[in-house]
Write a structure and sequence with these properties.
GO terms for molecular function: pyrroline-2-carboxylate reductase activity; thiomorpholine-carboxylate dehydrogenase activity; thyroid hormone binding. By secondary structure, the protein is an alpha/beta fold. The protein has helices at residues 10-16, 19-35, 109-126, 142-154, 167-176, 187-191, 234-239, 247-253, 255-260, 268-273, 292-310, and strands at residues 6-8, 40-41, 46-50, 55-64, 69-78, 88-95, 102-107, 134-138, 159-163, 182-183, 196-199, 218-221, 241-244, 264-267, 284-287. α2 (19-35) crosses α11. Residues 77, 86-88, 112, 116, 139-144, 164-165, 169, 200-203, 207, 222-223, 225, 288-290 line the site of 1,4-dihydronicotinamide adenine dinucleotide (NAI).
Length: 314
């Protein structure tokens, strides 16, 4: 009989997962995905609308042959949640690929927060603008915090600006993170002159407009994962060089890509591998939707760290 699956909760995942180990694992997952050689199987996320309750349930399976990793994430994202509960909540199931038995059930919320921010950081590392002085974050929720944490660790920003729909949540964000944050009264004020802009909102209409974005800046557009949702206007989508995590998913899921009709220049994995160029001197935009391979690779890393910690010391 197969061993019972282990359970790894949110606090333990947060304890086991370090960006230093996660970044190379994600770079490899992005590269392997973008080879499109049949070694990675990842259908576009299957999303069930829960209209009555203004929410969605997404199912994200993947199999990666080289690292022999089989997993699926189940993620809910709801517009209205009870006060204090997160809009996104996820669980990852990690399987033994040789017989399909369930090895681990782990919290996927921390995984989602950290791997998404890490992928944006990878995009910024490769599509780096010539200056990295001012970082602008639009939105002040869970992803805003994880993005703040890794971006201020990895890059030498001198100023971080945040804007959120309510000043109160922007101020709460500023109080939660370590380091100085300038709370802005408008998105425009936050964006003007910024070298890197991150959009991490639940908006379904644009919050970021091309006329505000400094030529040569880099944008990570992380929200708006439904075909009818927007975070970014047509001007920016069409004038920036557009990079995505998955072309197939972007053409099915991203309102910013589909409704603007913008041309996709490359997948991030192609840039990391070096088969497509990073046009750093231009205004660049990385449209992130989130991929199952990112979750699978991260879950495998968490599991391996868990095993290493449990191994009796000789
Ligand atoms: N690309 C990826 O891999 C992933 C993307 N996401 C997306 O990132 C975004 C942020 O996620 P979380 O921080 O977890 O959510 P959250 O609920 O913690 O924060 C959402 C933020 O958006 C703001 N907001 C909500 N409606 C808005 C509107 N109409 N206009 C402007 N701001 C609005 C809220 O005030 C809050 O600051 C969401 O769109 C989410 O679906 C989340 C996980 C992975
Ligand atoms: O990749 C992911 O987990 C998600 N992307 C958008 C909503 C959740």
């Amino acid at each position: 009989m197969a061993d019972a699956p282990i359970f790894i909760g949110a606090a333990e995942v947060a304890d086991l997962l370090q960006y230093g180990a996660l970044l190379p694992v994600l770079e490899r997952a992005l590269v392997d995905f973008s080879k499109h050689d049949g070694m990675v199987v990842q259908p576009v996320r299957s999303t069930v609308p829960v209209d009555k309750h203004n929410g969605f349930l997404g199912v994200m399976p993947a199999y990666m042959t080289e690292s022999d990793t089989l997993a699926t994430k189940i993620v809910r994202f709801y517009h209205q949640t009870a006060f204090g509960t997160s809009s996104h909540q996820a669980t990852v199931l990690l399987f033994n690929p040789s017989d399909g038995s369930l090895r681990a059930i782990m919290d996927g919320t921390v995984i989602t927060e950290m791997r998404t921010a890490a992928v944006s950081a990878i995009a910024t590392k490769y599509l780096k603008p010539d200056r990295l002085e001012t970082l602008c974050i639009l939105g002040s929720g869970a992803q805003a915090i994880s993005h703040y944490n890794i971006f201020t660790q990895m890059f030498p920003f001198k100023q971080v600006r945040v804007w959120s729909r309510s000043r109160e949540s922007a101020e709460r964000f500023a109080g939660q993170v370590q380091g100085q944050v300038q709370v802005c009264t408008s998105a425009r004020e936050a964006v003007l002159g910024a070298d890197v802009v991150i959009t991490v909102t639940m908006a379904s209409e644009p919050v970021l407009f091309g006329e505000w974005v400094k030529p040569g800046a880099h944008v990570n557009a992380v929200g708006a994962c439904r075909p009818e949702w927007r975070e970014v206007d047509d001007a920016l989508m069409k004038n920036a060089v557009l990079y995505v995590d998955s072309k197939e998913a972007a053409l099915m899921e991203s309102g910013d890509v589909i409704l603007s009709g913008a041309d996709i220049f490359a997948e991030l994995g192609e840039v990391v591998k070096g088969t497509r160029p990073a046009l750093c001197e231009k205004t660049t935009l990385f449209k992130s939707l989130g991929m199952a391979v990112e979750d699978a690779a991260t879950a495998k890393l968490v599991f391996d760290c868990w095993l290493a910690k449990k191994k009796p010391k000789l």
